[in-house]
Design brief:
By secondary structure, the protein is of the alpha+beta class. 47% of the residues lie in helices and 16% in strands. Strands 1, 2, 3, 4 and 5 form a five-stranded antiparallel β-sheet that branches. It holds the Pfam family Nitroreductase.
Length: 200
Amino acid sequence: MTNQFNQLQEKRRSIYALGKNVKEDKQTLVDLIEKTIELSPSAFNSQTVRAVIAFGQDSDRIWDIVLAELRKVVKDDEAFAKTQAKVNSFKAYGTILYFTETATVKQLEADFPAYAANFAGWAEQAIGGAQQAVWEALAVQGLGASLQHYNPLIDEAIAKAFDIPETWQLRAEMPFGSVEAPAGEKDVLPAEKRFKVFGA
């Protein structure tokens, strides 16, 4: 069966060869990212996902912060050189920082004690859904992206550099830009290892 949605999903891949050859203007991309996150679901309609969208020098500054923090923990020069090359490759057209707004999570835990143990996990589901949706939306526009996780190593420095509220918890970083080289082959587990179907 051919499904249009899954055809669109196939466009979303981890693209590491990212460039700055983007035709869309920045405001168009901001509107796209904001609307996509707004349309993403969250438990209890809690809307706990927050984002910082950075372009140009501000985007590059994110990855400079990553390198500065990594340098503090990676003492071997040869190992750091490899890390530096990888991180510098993320200096593309822009970067999205994804956050969970923790004050709302805590308030829901207080308001609904029977479900209190679940709200942190549900917030993770919400941010995962938003990331997936934005990633696909960018792919439909012909843009590449990948999802990185240098948090919590960079949390404090990022918060200071971008005036992030204390209640925003950094969860991931998404560099995006033009696709300078396609993604490699993707291994897929056999269906029998992933799914169980009953009553079919």
